[in-house]
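As noted in the main text, all predictions were made from sequence alone. Below is one such record, for Maltose/maltodextrin transport system permease protein.
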Amino acid sequence: MTNNQAEKKTGLSAPRNIATLLSVLVPGLGQLYNRRLLKGFILLIVSISFLVTTWDYIDIGIWGLFTLGTIPREHHSIQLLLQGLISLIVLFFGICIYAYNILDARKDAKTREEGKPIPTLLEGISNFYDRGFPYFLILPGLVMLLFIVVLPLLFMLALAFTDYNQYNSPPRNLLSWVGFANFTDLINIDIWKNTFLSVFTWTIVWTVVATTLQIILGFFLALLVNDKRIKFKRTIRTVLILPWAVPAFVSILIFSALFNPTFGAINRDILSHFEIMIPWLSDPFWAKIALIMIQTWLGFPFIFALFTGVLQSVPADMYEAADVDGGTRWQKLRLITIPHVLFATAPLLIMQYAGNFNNFNIIYLFNEGNPAVRGQNAGGTDILISWVYKLTFETNNYNMAAAITIIMGLIVMGFAFFQFRRTAAFKDEGERY
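Prediction:
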């Protein structure tokens, strides 16, 4: 019996099973069994170093993640929660190294069973450069992503299932896991239910109406400027893009002063001639109207610039063919212009809706979400994102703010995913790749 035949045994005595079992028991032993001595020693040293340096931290972190502390004033629930989440991330890297150790040992053992030569050190380095080097380069970015983006998201998700608020905050008190109680409170407790339904409804209306108006206005102006009969197009385009050139922060503050019912120019210099005085800032309805008008003004220049470029790319022979067939202006607009524009810009338009859904700046800078509404803990013009800001920084209801943030995230992700899947541009990209 040759060596290759002897190694092609079945059952537990097969090299692949022996190498796998050894790697499961002690990382690196499988590689040593496969005569990959350098790789085996490296994996063994890395595994031992990982356990020695992180064991105590992970042990305390996992304990704190489940208990959130047991002794008030001595244990800080927030610190334990963060340490627990970091421990999960560190443990994830450890599990990845452990899994790689097992899979690598089994792959090399299968190579031995097939009678193929085991790669030498130089061949292993060459294979790593060809296949693994790109992953090695993105590893630092992945680590930063986990700790800068994923960790805060996990922390926010965790807070939504605790009782962390202004009346129960560490280190004086310990936090507890409350399950879905914060979400049920949004439905069962009157003040939370009334506020949530009111703010959520206004957020949807605000998103749909303000975004749709800025898209319609931008498209209409782009059609006018693109008409061959219009002269001085460059000047007109420059003037229409000016609102986009001015920082939105400055524009919103100026509009807040213009809409002031006491000294604002809109009431004092314009509407006063018709003996009309509108409470723009003190009445929720008129404040919402003002916000929608301001957002339409701020948002249409981008849409105008976007549509202007797309309209110039529509093939002229399509319109000429429509003229030959006797097509009307409305038919050319409906069957040629609009489909072409939507195909090219649908993903960006969807992002406009998603952006306005979380448009905190205009709501807070205009009137801080006011005026106040009786029976609610949010202002009359607060949208979900500005309400979350108030719950976090003004009333310290961190648990409810986190719960509402999760709901917001699910809504935006669901809407964006559904709409992206329906757009022709997204489907075309999917088929292409």
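Residues 121-159 form the longest helix (39 residues). The chain has a mean pLDDT of 87. These features were considered when defining construct boundaries for the mutagenesis experiments described in Section 2.9.
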